[in-house]
Amino acid sequence: MRDRLLVATRKGLFELRGAGRDLKITGRWFLGEPVTAVLRDPRDGALYAALDLGHFGAKLHRSDDDGASWREVTVPSYAGVPGDPPPALSMIWVLEADPNAPGGRMWAGVIPGGLFSSSDKAESWTLNRALWDNPLRADWFGGGFDQPGLHSISFDPRDARKVAVGVSCGGAWLSDDAGKSWRVSTEGMWAAYLPPEERENPATQDPHRIVRCAAAPDVLWTQHHNGVFRSVDGGQTWREIAIAPSSFGFAVAVHPTDPDTAWFAPAISDQQRYPVEGRFILTRTRDGGATFERLTAGLPDHESYDLVYRHGLDVDDTGARLAVGSTTGSLWVSDDAGDRWACVNANLPPIHAVRWM
Amino acid sequence: MAPAGTVEVAAARLLEAIDAIGQDYPHLAAYVLDEHRRLRKHVAVFVDGRLIRGQAALDLVLAPETDIYVMQALSGG
Description:
heterodimer; A: 4-stranded antiparallel sheet; 1 helix; 28 strands; globular; B: alpha+beta; 3-stranded antiparallel sheet; 3 helices
């Protein structure tokens, strides 16, 4: 079971350690600065923290000594990429290590809508032109942010060439050749926020978050803007699943070995975006979405208006240990797959992402 | 990352001054300029005490003894 948790917040990056549901803050970095994405590369232990400095742009830092020291490295760049106006990096939204890639390749999903890769530990980046130049990208639009953003990058551990990415609002995309070519793949998804004739446009679907079961990589779960969708064929087709009390939310986590088990953080759609009836709960399915349980033990029994962002829910590689962090700055963990939760801290800055390591 | 105090450089324009300082501080330019070498939206440039708005600040011809302040514009949060 993982005993270290990284928590990326609006006011810094925190590390927590501890057993069971008893975690303590053991590290704090970049205090006061918005941390938008974080990664510990399992291949070499390097830590990465993406910052959004507002005035001074998006930045990226790497630590090669487990957080003892950090060094600023290179951010993805749109230099030389034409446009009117030319695109410029706004925010790094997700960082992922490619588990199969020789040479330690890593990927970054950014706003505006770009996918970048680096093979030198973020000393340099290359824009994935195959996705950027796809003509369907012209249909993408922003959701939550003014510009579209790429927030999910999922590798098939059986085959290094197979990658899935998600864009808000730009659909779910698959590559079978390590990103050399892409196809949009949203059959089964639909968009309640578009007029009837546009509802099945693949390039304007809004998958808020796409995750893959590590042990059953053909199973992917998507928390979409207006529903939950599950694929059992590697993302080729999707089936809608309705969840009580709400199918709206941003985050989803899937069990690493059981593709039928997944967790969600429901909220009221569409303009309100707070927990149903002002009560923060999580939901879990253990049967592939046929039924859902409401998880409440250890979560607030009073009014609570916590909202969980896309990367604010994570499960460790045992499937037992979970962490969820909210925009209210509350952090809960569970060590029994969500049966019981403990509030680790209710007074953190607004939480962007949690990640076991 | 950035010089601790005031630095003096020889430059005819602010853009050249940023590049000159960047010789010693390679990340500095990216804090002031975006990847298209445009002045970042929330960075304010004062030349001899006067706020120069927008991209014009980068190309302003500088006198031999010019004081330049590059500051973050005020914003909340």
